[in-house]
Design a protein that fits this description.
It is a single chain. The chain has helices spanning 30-34, 67-81, 99-108; strands spanning 11-12, 16-17, 42-48, 57-61, 85-88, 91-95, 112-115. It is an alpha+beta fold. It folds into two domains: 9-35, no CATH class; 39-115, SUI1-like domain (Translation Initiation Factor Eif1). The strands form two sheets. A five-stranded mixed beta sheet has the order 5-6-4-3-7, with helices on one face. The chain has a two-stranded antiparallel sheet with strand order 1-2. The chain starts with 10 loop residues before the first strand and ends with a strand.
């Protein structure tokens, strides 16, 4: 009897990249949602302009919430800052320079927050 291959569907033309473990599209992967958030418990807030045509973006990394909580937190931060933004790759990006306001909002939640970068 041959051992079963650990491979599987990796890409689908209908859904794009697929998770090899649960075989769902990466956007709807169930095994990543079940995993606990990684990190050292410190939320880092940084202002970035690199690769954005000189436009400033406030980036939040390391928030101790799951994927659904990250989306909700992103919406709350964008509304509080009065600007747009997105959630991708486990980070929240808020358009504009809102580092001080975001740090204050996250500290009100009782999280340990550090301003990172320059």
């Amino acid at each position: 009897m041959k051992p079963r291959s650990s491979g599987g569907l990796v890409y689908s033309t209908d859904h794009g990249r697929m998770c090899p473990a649960c075989r769902h599209p990466l956007a709807h992967c169930t095994c990543r949602q079940a995993a606990a958030p990684e990190g050292d418990g410190i939320v880092r807030v940084q202002r970035e302009t690199k690769g954005r045509g000189g436009k400033a973006v406030t980036v939040v990394r390391g928030a101790p919430v799951d994927a659904a909580g990250l989306l909700k937190l992103g919406q709350e931060l964008k509304a509080a800052c009065g600007s747009g933004g997105t959630v991708k790759d486990g980070n929240i990006e808020v358009q504009g320079e809102h580092v001080e306001k975001v740090v204050a909002l996250l500290q009100q939640r009782g999280w340990q927050v550090k301003r990172s970068g320059g």
